[in-house]
Amino acid sequence: MKKPKKNVRVTLQEVADHAGVSTTTASLVVRNNPRISEATRNKVLASMEELGYVYDRVAANMRSQNSNIIGVIVTDIANKFISEFLIGVQNTLEDFGYTVLLGTTFDSVEKQQKLISTMVEHRVDGLILNPASRSVGKTVKQLNNLKIPLVLANRELTNVHADYVGIDYPEGTYKAISHLISKGHEKIAFLGGVKNSSTWTERMEGYRTAHENANLTLDESLVIDSEPTDKGGEEAALKMLDLPEIPTAIFCFSDLIAFGVMKVLTQKGIVIGRDIDIVGFDNIPEAEIYHPPLTTVSSYPKSIGNQAAKLLHSKVKRESEEMHRVILKPQLVIRETSK
């Protein structure tokens, strides 16, 4: 058979004729159906390559009413916690045969709202959302009006009717503060994070409970919020150093915040682990190799991503109509910054 003319899309019928199989068989090969023998599969794939066949996914989606595309929206892929979370999401979704459409909000509510609309326009089968810190009522309404499965990850939004996967932030923070109290610390700062976001509020719950259970008075002046970045950590540390009395220990909203805090304190000649103890949150890979290695709370971002992807898949396939809230248990990893 002659090759089709250039600039003319090769059809599946032409591939089938070239390979000497039926169109149904060629279609099953395209869809990776396990019933097709390896020999037949290789023959059809060879014809596709020789003819330059490109699968018309748009047409297939219109026939099946499914896109096999999952939208994933996160705050900042430069954040190691988020990149680890994405590895868990992507690996699991790919195992299920989905293509991932990724969007980054840089923690902007406006960008988030536009990305959600764009994902819907691209007919994604479902959406995994790591919400922006300051998500508001308009976002809640937008999400509740979605006609596709939705799973929130890492940060819950009040009044959004969606499944959720995250870590037990109150317990993780409680473990961190209790560890510092067991070392004799009574003045423990809480630095970083966007005040009143769900992740900040839940950490604050653990921070407060640990103080209450140890019969310690919580000093509100030691709670200093900031953007959840290393730069935010630097700014929070400088504000802390302006206080009349500097605390003997610091709990940081995240490891990124902790890195910013440690940078400022080191520049000021304060020896971390001797003059002041520090605990972070997330246990990103850099925490172990930072100088000094950071005590932190493991929040298992890959596992959260994996669970979120599995949960969304079950919703897309309509395997479960119930709402699920999956909360993973944190673990305190003690290193040099508070040994």
Automatic annotation (TrEMBL):
Coiled coil: none annotated. Residues 10-64 form the HTH lacI-type domain. GO terms for molecular function: DNA-binding transcription factor activity; transcription cis-regulatory region binding. The keyword Repressor applies. SUPFAM superfamilies: lambda repressor-like DNA-binding domains, Periplasmic binding protein-like I. It comes from the Bacteria. Keywords: DNA-binding, Repressor, Transcription, Transcription regulation. SMART domains: HTH_LACI. This is HTH-type transcriptional regulator DegA. The gene is degA_1.
